[in-house]
């Protein structure tokens, strides 16, 4: 077999020149340059992120320092602690009034909000419900921190957050956004519940009930005046006017507190265990009979309050009265007048008698008012008017007396004690609203009044099963006396306990071990007062 070479075509690829060390070095250099450029880009990006993070931290630190800065006249001096003056008492009351009012501006204008956001009245009614839920969450999860941090900085931050978030309510046109911001704003609207225990810490024992009455009156005044202002301003302008009004008031409150609120020391300096603080709330609930008794009385009286004020609108807007919204809102003035008298009553009665005696008197006032209003409302409008007056006097008396009682349990746990007490009060408000509206719809005004009588009876039962000097859960051990016992008498020396707490706080600031205050032994101070 023969193969002709002419039939074969061979294409030869010219051989590539051999690689030299120079070529390898050039290629390696290109790879190194590429890798170096990539690494430089990543490092530059990380460096920019780090610089931005540092800038944000610095800005936040400066802002935080500005918010928490304490003017010289407000700084705490253990040698000369600031006195709890009447001016400061009124400032706290003013702050409580227009802070708690944030929760109630929407109540009389829900139909207008429904039209503004193009939703049903039923869906618009979720706004106050969400705000109450936010307030309850703040009461449970934020207020206990008042036993850890200094109250001045804590209060200022909460007021600033509330005011800033309130701007969103003034501007938004979205209903879901409005509801969400309402929850967040209510979450930080718990500053009154930080101020009330602070008043219990600072007020002199012989004036504690009077000072608490002034601040507590501001709390209830905010609830009443919010409905009045909201109804009047919305009737003659737009609904946003009341929200802009509240926005400006929040920053006014922040400015006043920033300039005049003293920087009191923490009651538990250096101890921060949030979970243990929450656990201690449950422990208080299970181990303190006085706290449970006062909380149950607070539950019944708050139920009476919401039952009356939520059903009063239905009574006055229907025959035989058929009143328009503005005269109905003016009923709030009745509560305002009675609240202004509560400090005088507290000075004459609550400061001189045991708190339980004042609580029973308050429940009896409520009983008289409900009996008058329930059975005479069909005959004359004077019945509901008298009921409002007696209810406001009775409820406010019970609230002040209950706070005086529970704040004497443990001075270092007053914010957590207040959380337990106000938690029950909040439950009572929800129960009163739901039960009162349901019974009024089925049985009319006398139906809602009848359940009020039942709650008064429950409150009186809680009051009489445990005497003012009893140490256990039930009974009247320690006697039947209702006057407060002076030093050297039976019972607990509450004034000495409070002075001891103040002395310990002062000594912690001075680093002296907590045994003496300015060289004076606590036992010597007690002996001097006994003499």
TrEMBL record:
Bilayer topology term: Multi-pass membrane protein
Name of the protein in its database record: Major facilitator superfamily (MFS) profile domain-containing protein
GO molecular function, one term: transmembrane transporter activity
Stored Pfam families: MFS_1
Bilayer-spanning residue ranges: 86-105, 125-146, 153-169, 175-199, 211-230, 242-260, 281-309, 321-341, 353-375, 381-401, 421-441, 447-465
Subcellular location: Membrane
InterPro entries in the record: MFS (IPR011701), MFS_dom (IPR020846), MFS_trans_sf (IPR036259)
UniProt domain Major facilitator superfamily (MFS) profile: residue ranges: 85-471
UniProt cross-references to Gene3D superfamilies, sorted A to Z: MFS general substrate transporter like domains
Keywords: Membrane, Transmembrane, Transmembrane helix
Disordered: region residues: 1-44, 508-531
GO annotation, cellular component aspect: membrane
SUPFAM superfamilies, per database record: MFS general substrate transporter (SSF103473)
Species: Sclerotinia nivalis
Basic and acidic residues bias: start-end ranges: 20-29, 522-531
């Amino acid at each position: 077999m023969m193969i002709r070479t002419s039939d074969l075509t061979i294409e030869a690829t010219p051989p590539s020149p051999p690689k030299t060390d120079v070529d390898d070095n050039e290629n390696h250099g290109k790879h190194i340059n590429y890798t170096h450029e990539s690494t430089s880009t990543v490092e530059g990006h990380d460096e920019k992120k780090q610089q931005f993070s540092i800038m944000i931290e610095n800005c936040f630190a400066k802002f935080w320092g500005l918010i928490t800065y304490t003017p010289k006249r407000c700084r705490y001096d253990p040698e000369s602690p600031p006195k709890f003056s009447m001016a400061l008492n009124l400032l706290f009351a003013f702050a409580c009034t227009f802070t708690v009012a944030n929760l109630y501006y929407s109540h009389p204008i829900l139909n207008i909000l429904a039209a503004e956001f193009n939703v049903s009245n039923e869906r618009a009614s979720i706004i106050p419900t969400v705000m109450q839920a936010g307030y309850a969450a703040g009461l449970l999860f934020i207020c206990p921190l008042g036993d850890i941090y200094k109250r001045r900085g804590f209060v200022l931050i909460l007021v600033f957050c509330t005011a800033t978030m309130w701007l969103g309510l003034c501007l938004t046109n979205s209903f879901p956004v409005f509801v969400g911001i309402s929850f967040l704003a209510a979450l930080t609207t718990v500053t009154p519940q930080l101020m009330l225990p602070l008043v219990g810490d600072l007020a002199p024992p012989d004036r504690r009930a009077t000072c608490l009455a002034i601040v507590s009156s501001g709390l209830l005044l905010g609830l009443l005046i919010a409905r009045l202002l909201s109804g009047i301003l919305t009737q003659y302008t737009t609904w946003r006017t009341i929200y802009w009004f509240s926005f400006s008031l929040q920053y006014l409150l922040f400015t006043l507190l920033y300039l005049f609120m003293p920087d009191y020391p923490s009651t538990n300096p250096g101890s921060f265990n949030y979970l243990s603080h929450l656990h201690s709330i449950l422990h208080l609930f299970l181990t303190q009979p006085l706290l449970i008794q006062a909380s149950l009385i607070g539950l019944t009286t708050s139920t009476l309050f919401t039952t009356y004020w939520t059903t009063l609108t239905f009574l006055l807007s229907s025959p035989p009265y058929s009143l328009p919204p503005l005269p109905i809102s003016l009923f709030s003035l009745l509560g305002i007048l009675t609240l202004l008298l509560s400090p005088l009553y507290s000075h004459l009665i609550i400061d001189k008698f045991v708190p339980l005696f004042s609580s029973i008197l308050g429940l009896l006032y409520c009983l008289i008012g409900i009996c008058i209003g329930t059975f005479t409302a069909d005959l004359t409008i004077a019945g509901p008017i008298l009921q409002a007056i007696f209810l406001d006097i009775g409820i406010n008396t019970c609230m002040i007396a209950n706070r005086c009682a529970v704040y004497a349990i443990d001075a270092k746990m007053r914010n957590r004690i207040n959380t337990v007490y106000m938690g029950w009060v909040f439950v009572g408000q929800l129960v009163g609203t739901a039960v009162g509206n349901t019974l009024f719809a089925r049985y009319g005004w006398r139906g809602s009044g009848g359940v009020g009588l039942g709650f008064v009876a429950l409150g009186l039962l809680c009051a009489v099963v445990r005497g003012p000097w009893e140490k256990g859960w039930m009974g009247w051990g320690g006697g039947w006396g209702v006057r407060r016992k002076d030093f050297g008498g039976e019972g607990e020396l509450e004034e000495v306990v409070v002075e001891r707490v103040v002395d310990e706080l002062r000594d912690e600031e001075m680093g002296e071990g907590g045994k003496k205050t300015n060289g004076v032994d606590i036992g010597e101070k007690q002996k001097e007062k006994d003499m």
